Automatic annotation (TrEMBL):
Name this polypeptide is given: Hypothetical membrane protein
Residues annotated as transmembrane: 7-26, 46-68, 80-99
Keywords: Membrane, Transmembrane, Transmembrane helix
Organism name: Gemmatimonas aurantiaca (strain DSM 14586 / JCM 11422 / NBRC 100505 / T-27)
Length: 122
């Protein structure tokens, strides 16, 4: 197994988990603690969308990190990275369609680029 490939696969899932945690802290916890948004249905939808988006990143990234550390041959599976690519494209579609900030969009693009890089080093 190529060391660059191992590094990139771990970086993909680590980035997913870390960016999900940071997204939750910045867009949900921080705004809730500072009471930025007026209570109401729109605020509930905002917090719900961003919470689901962020925790999806955290869960998928943590599961991927667990798989690649416990079952190292899984890193050679093209299916793992292809499935991760489909998930990243889904997150990109959600970010483009429903999120007004540019950071989640940029994060999804970086994630897609990292997955492509990991696929090319296989």
């Amino acid at each position: 197994m190529d060391r660059l490939h191992v590094f990139l696969v771990r970086a993909v899932f680590g980035w997913m988990a870390l960016s999900g945690a940071l997204h939750f802290l910045a867009d949900v916890a921080s705004q809730y603690i500072r009471r930025i948004r007026v209570p109401g249905p729109e605020t509930t939808l905002y917090y719900g969308l961003h919470t689901a988006y962020a925790w999806g990143h955290i869960a998928f990234g943590a599961l991927g990190l667990y798989l690649v550390t416990r079952a190292t041959p899984v890193m050679d599976e093209r299916r793992l990275l292809l499935m991760s690519g489909v998930v990243a494209l889904g997150w990109l579609a959600i970010a483009m369609g429903f999120m007004e900030y540019w950071q989640p969009k940029a994060n999804a693009v970086v994630l897609c680029a990292m997955i492509v890089a990991a696929l090319l080093t296989r």
